[in-house]
């Protein structure tokens, strides 16, 4: 039998643990796994692109556990009443190949993306950062707001979206959260207005195109940029001149994948970037001065889903009431008799019933 985590289980966990604490604890798992960077067998995700979106598989293993995630990204889905992103994943035991956990990852991906953003910002942003521009107020925005408030102490959110209804939705959801009662919400009329005076700019837009959401004149000394929305070929959010500035320090998750999908797809292949694992392991500094501009070019990497699945497996192991199982793998008296142990037994039961 294989442990199973569905949407209802995630909802129960978040209600019990709290979204902020869940993401903070997940961030600790992320950081621990990034410290073990050399232990992982890594590859860029396998992507199938179409004119309307992308479907991807994201595998990784540390030799003891293996995981993969299936995920799509279809920005126009919302016009049909569908989600832009859906996902599920598997955690498996390398020694037997048996799956240990099958889990939804649609909600969990939103949680791990925000947890990773806030973790990177803890290393890269100025410690006194208290104001964040949140540009793109769709499905990921609440998670980013909660994670940055919880983990970095953000006290002001400057909100902008081309769709005013998205900002209204975000404002309503954040106002309903008691843990965010001390946060100031400022609705801006443009991305530039949202960015003005912010310590951190987070972009989480969904259009599959080379967009220019943040321009060079919006950048101020000491800012931290958390670019989340540019996560596939031909999809970016930052003006290329920002990336070429000498005072911008760029950190990525896994360089071979980010060169294809991240903001740095706009740069030459030999342009200098830093992998986040080198930051947490002390090989590279995340920020060299308070005036330097830092950029986390986030595309989402398989290690982060591995960490999320590992964390979920631990959580449900501590909560027997949530430990549901499914018969994904046959249990046989004779492991060499798959036909007789599955189809043969079923046919015998049907004959007896007749």
UniProtKB/TrEMBL annotation:
Domain of life: Bacteria
InterPro entries assigned to the protein according to its UniProt record, in alphabetical order: NAD(P)-bd_dom_sf, ODC_Mu_crystall, ODC_N
SUPFAM superfamilies listed in its UniProt record: NAD(P)-binding Rossmann-fold domains (SSF51735)
A Pfam family per the record: OCD_Mu_crystall
NCBIfam families for the chain: PRK07589.1
Alphabetical list of PANTHER family matching this protein: KETIMINE REDUCTASE MU-CRYSTALLIN (PTHR13812)
Protein name: Ornithine cyclodeaminase
């Amino acid at each position: 039998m294989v442990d199973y985590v569905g949407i209802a289980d995630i909802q129960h966990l978040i209600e019990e643990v709290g979204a902020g604490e869940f993401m903070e604890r997940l961030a600790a798992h992320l950081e621990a796994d990034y410290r073990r960077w050399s232990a992982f067998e890594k590859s860029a995700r396998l992507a199938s692109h179409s004119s309307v979106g992308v479907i991807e598989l994201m595998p990784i293993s540390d030799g003891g556990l293996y995981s993969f995630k299936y995920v799509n990204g279809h920005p126009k889905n919302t016009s049909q009443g569908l989600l832009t992103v859906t996902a599920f994943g598997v955690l498996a035991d390398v020694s037997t190949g048996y799956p240990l956990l099958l889990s939804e990852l649609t909600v969990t991906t939103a949680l791990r993306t925000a947890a990773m953003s806030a973790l990177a910002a803890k290393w890269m942003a100025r410690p006194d950062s208290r104001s964040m521009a949140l540009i793109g107020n769709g499905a990921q925005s609440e998670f980013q707001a909660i994670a940055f408030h919880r983990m970095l102490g953000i006290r002001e959110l400057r909100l902008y979206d081309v769709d005013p209804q998205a900002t209204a939705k975000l404002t309503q959801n954040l106002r309903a959260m008691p843990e965010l009662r001390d946060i100031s919400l400022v609705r801006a009329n443009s991305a530039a207005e949202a960015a003005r005076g912010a310590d951190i700019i987070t972009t989480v837009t969904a259009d599959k195109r080379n967009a220019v959401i943040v321009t060079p004149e919006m950048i101020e000394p000491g800012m931290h940029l958390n670019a989340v929305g540019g996560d596939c070929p031909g999809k970016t959010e930052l003006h290329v001149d920002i990336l070429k500035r000498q005072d911008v320090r760029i950190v990525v998750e896994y360089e071979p994948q980010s060169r294809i999908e991240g903001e740095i797809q706009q740069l030459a292949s030999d342009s200098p970037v830093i992998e986040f694992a080198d930051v947490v392991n002390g090989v590279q500094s995340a920020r060299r001065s308070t005036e330097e501009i830092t950029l986390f070019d986030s595309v989402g990497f398989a290690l982060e889903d591995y960490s999320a699945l590992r964390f979920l497996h631990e959580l449900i192991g501590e909560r027997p009431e949530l430990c549901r199982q499914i018969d994904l793998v046959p249990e046989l008296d004779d492991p060499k008799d798959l036909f007789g142990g599955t189809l043969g037994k079923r046919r015998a039961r049907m004959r007896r019933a007749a």
